[in-house]
Design goal:
By secondary structure, the chain is an alpha/beta fold. The protein has two domains: 213 residues, P-loop containing nucleotide triphosphate hydrolases (Rossmann fold), CATH 3.40.50.300; 184 residues, Rossmann fold. Helix content is 35%, strand content 22%. The chain is built from 15 helices and 17 strands. The strands form four sheets. It has a six-stranded mixed beta sheet with strand order 5-6-7-3-8-9, with helices on both faces. The chain is globular and about 95 Å long. It starts with 5 loop residues before the first strand and ends with a strand. The relative contact order is 0.12.
Length: 483
Amino acid sequence: MANNDVAVRFNKVSFEYGHDKPILEEASFSLRRGTKMTLMGQNGAGKSTIFNLITGALKADDGSIFVDDRLKIAYAKQVIPREDLDLTVKEFFEKCFDEKIYSIDPKIDAVLEVVNLSAPHDKIIRAFSGGQQARLLLASALIQNPDLLILDEPTNNLDKAGIAHLTSFLIGYQKTCIVISHDADFLNSFTDGVLYLDVFTKKVDQYLGDYYVVVAEIAARIEKEEMKNAQYEKEIIANKEKANFFANKGGKMRLVARRMREKAEEMEEAKVDVRKEDQAIRAFTIPSQPELSGDLLKISSLTVIINHHPYPKDANVGLKKNQHLLLAGPNGIGKSTLLESLAVGKAAGAKIAEGVRVGYYRQDFSTLDFDDTVYESLASVMGGSDEHKLRSVASGFLLDKKIMNSKVGTLSEGQKGLVAFARLVLQEPGLLILDEPTNHINFRHLPIIAEALSKYEGAMVLVSHVPEFVEQIRIDEILDLEK
């Protein structure tokens, strides 16, 4: 492929964090100008690292990375950086440019219209809902008028209307785009192919075709490789058995035995590295706080946000043990604000019964101390000091020894989500409050999480914009803030 057709090319690129966290080992792929590619891989495989290597935020340890220097690159990350949350909308967009942009306000209005968001320029970023922040992230990339658009989980926190709007935009987008997402239908609507980062081999495989065709092709390739290796294994065992037989005969038969062993070694080398299926978390249960009765949560009134203005609203919700409430409504109406005020006990029109332990899963993981190690984070919510239980629960969420000793802040967003779920298991709450618990999570884990939430025997309040996930969960009541 000629360089004038190539936007990005990785040639035998290796990269690792420190000396014990390899991400890429001689990975190669190329991205043609004007194509829209999906980047797939397990939580923690290093997908966001590839994005940072493309932008130059990280440098490869070995190999070469070609990025057409005529391309303007814009990267919409998974979440707004914490240091930007107290900026105003205008300051947030000004930060997208190295130089001062005069008359930036009309540009902000134009790009907010593209992402279907109305936002006062003096409003603080922190005051926006998760879905609105997702739109701001996309807008911050688009305002730079990039030739290469990089999107990291852009559908996280978006409601149905937001995803439809983003999908329509990407279908019509004429420039180069790379996207990480776990939303299969979203990806299939616009993608030209898939880059698959294998967490085991640390290499990138490239496939062309729509998302579903590629996923089927990957599955067929795995099956073919496994069959081929099974045949090799059969022949290896046969040759080793023959080698042992002839070796015992002595004389010239030892030469035959040596040849048999050499043939077995050649076959060992010929075996291909089969891409292992992404590992799913173990089935789990979130134990409910025992000896609770009556209404664990009562909501008599709440506040909804319409066009950035608060309006009071009457409600009549009482949740006992084993009752699950779905909180519904579009982005920005006040769902996350209500959940946060419930979790910290400051919701004016709501009361949590005395002694009820609250387990709170926040979409931005701000309940986690990023300076804690994963071990410290899990130990901090346990009622006792049962080392075996802690490590057993961690193992079920794919939190191995290396991850346990890592600081929470160094983990991928998907791994932070698994830490948050492990904490809920160890905490044994009486009231579970979940704000977009599917964000960043590998799709293989979602049915297991849905089953655990369905079986949860305490009171539960859930916000999720993923219908396929919600359909798998037992919901007893829906409170729609829009109605």
